Amino acid sequence: MRSYPVVGLLPTFARDPVNTLVRLAQEQGGVAVLPLGRRRIYLVTSPAGVQHVLKDHAGNFIKGRTMDVARPLLGESLVAAEGETWRRLRRLVQPAFSRHYVMNMVDVIADTVTSFFPQWDALAESKKPINLVDMMMEVTLSIIARIMFSVDIVEEEERLLSAFDRAMNALNRIAWSPWPRLSSLYVRALPGFRRAKATLDEVVYHIIRSRRANGTERKDLLAILMGARDAETGTSLSDREVRDQVMTVFLAGHETTALALSWGWYLLGTHPETYRRLQEEVDDVLGGKTVTRDRIGALRYTRMVVDETLRLYPTVWVTARDTVEDDVVDGVPIPGGARVVISPYVTHRDPHLWPAPEAFDPERFREGVPEHLPLFGYYPFSGGPRKCLGYLLAPLEMTIILALMAQRYHITLVPGYPVRPRPVLTLRPHPGVFVWLDRRH
Ligand code: HEM
After folding, report:
1. Ligand 1: distance of its center to the CA of 393 in Å?
2. Using a 6 Å cutoff on CB, does residue 396 contact ligand 1?
3. Contacts for 154-161 with beta carbons within 8 Å, 24 or more apart?
4. Do 288 and 182 form a contact (C-beta atoms < 8 A)?
5. pTM above 0.90, yes or no
C-alpha cells in the first residue's frame, strides 16, 4: 500500500478507510501499525489482541481522548465517561437493558412498527423509489423514544432526524483529526452544528421537564435516571446529567440499528433465495398475526439473517482506545499514550476465522455464533466491561422489524444504485438503499 513521507497512509486512508484497514491487516497481521501523520496508531484485529484490549487488560486501554469527538453533542455521557463516574452511570442504567426488561418490550416494539404501516402503505401505493435508510431511521427513533422515555415523537421526528444527521456530519469531520481537542472546539463553534444541537436539546429538555412536571407510573429508563440518588450525598442527577444520558441513548439506540437494518435489506435484496426463505419463515411462524414474545423465538432464520448482517456490516465498524502504560498486545509491544483502533469489520472478514468471508450466508449462525470461533472472532457489540448496552435489544428489534416488514411488503432494490460502505462514525450504505415497496396479498 502506498505510504507517503510525513503523512504516511493518511491520503490512502482518507480515500478509502474501510479497505485500507482490511488491507493493512492482511499485510501486517492482527496487530498492525497505521501511520497517520505524526501519530502511530495500532490496528488490533486478531481475536487474542482484541480480547487483551477490550477485556483482559481493559484498565490499560481507556476511552481517554478518543471520545473528544462525541463530547460536543453527548457531553459527559455514559459512552464517554471513565472510572467511577462511568461505573455509577452503567450500574444505574443497566437494569433497563436486562433480558427480562428487553423481552417485555417486544409488544411495544411490534406496535410501534405497525403504527408506521399507513405511512408505508402510502409509499407503496405511490410506486416511487424510497430510500430505506430514512424509513429505518424513523422507525428506530420512534421505538427508542417509546421504550426508553415513553414518549411519542411522531410530530418532532423529521426535525429530530435532520438535526441528528447534521450534528453527526459535523462530528464526522473531526473523527480522525490528529488534534481532537482543537477540532472539538472548532465543531462546537460551527453555526450548523450549534443549530442542530439546539434543536436536539430543545426536544430532550422538553421530555425531561414534562416528566418532572407530570410524572408517570412507568418504570422506563427516564424514570430510572430521574429517580437516581447518590448513595453518599443523596442528591439526584441534574437536568444536564440526565440530558447527556438521554441524548446518548437516543443517538446510540437508533442510528446503529437503522443502518444495520438497511444493510440487512440490501443483502436480502441482492440474495433472493435467502429473502424467499425468510419470507417463508415469517409466513409460517406468524400466520398473518403480529410478532409477540411467544412467537419471536421461532423466527430462527430471521435472527440468523440479523447475525450474518452484523458480521458483514457491523455498523460500529471501529472503536478506539488510548493506552495508559506500555503493553504487549498479541506479541507486539505498544507504548503508553498510543492510540489503538479495533475493527470488527476487519476481524469479521478474516478468512482464517470465516471461510469465504465476503459471502452472505446466514447458515453460519444456525447454531448461534459458531462454537469453534475464539471469543473475539465475532463482536459487533464490542465486549468486556464497555460492551454495548443494547446488545440484547438491537438484534431483537431488528428481528421484529424485518419480520413485520417482510410479512406485509415485498421489497425490491431499484437497479442502478450500487451500494458501498461509507464510513462516517458509523458504517452507512452509500448513497442509500433505494427500493420499491409492494403490498403483499
Ligand atoms: C446494531 C445496533 C448496535 C450496534 C452495532 C452497537 C454497537 C456498539 C459498540 C461496538 C459499542 C462499544 C463502543 C466502544 O467500545 O467504544 C457500543 C456501546 C454502547 N451502545 Fe451500542 N450498538 C447498537 C445498538 C445500541 C442500542 C439499541 C442502544 C441503546 C438503546 C445502544 C447503547 C449503547 C451504549 C449506551 C453504549 C456505551 C456503553 C458503555 O460505554 O458502557 N447501542 N455499541
Report:
1. 10
2. no
3. 156/203, 159/199, 159/203, 160/199, 160/200, 160/203, 161/134, 161/137
4. no
5. yes
Q: Which residue has the cell 421505538?
A: 143
Domain at 10-439: CATH code: 1.10.630.10
Cell of 186: 472548532
Q: How far is the CA of 70 from the centre of ligand 1 (A)?
A: 13
pLDDT digits (tens, 9 = 90+) for 351-383: 999 999 999 999 999 999 999 999 999 999 999
Centre a 10 Å sphere on the Cβ of residue 33 and count the other Cβ atoms it contains.
15
Which residue type is seen at 148?
A: M
Note the pLDDT tens digit of each residue in 13-54: 778 889 999 999 999 999 999 877 677 799 999 999 999 999
Ligand 1 mean position, distance from CA 315 (Å) = 10
Distance CA 90, CA 438 (A): 43
Q: Minimal CA–CA distance to 74: which of 195, 229, 241?
A: 241
Q: State whether the beta carbon of 257 lies less than 6 angstroms from ligand 1.
A: yes
Structural domain boundaries of the chain? 10-439
User: What distance in Å separates the CA atoms of residue 282 and residue 103, rounded to the nearest whole number?
Assistant: 19
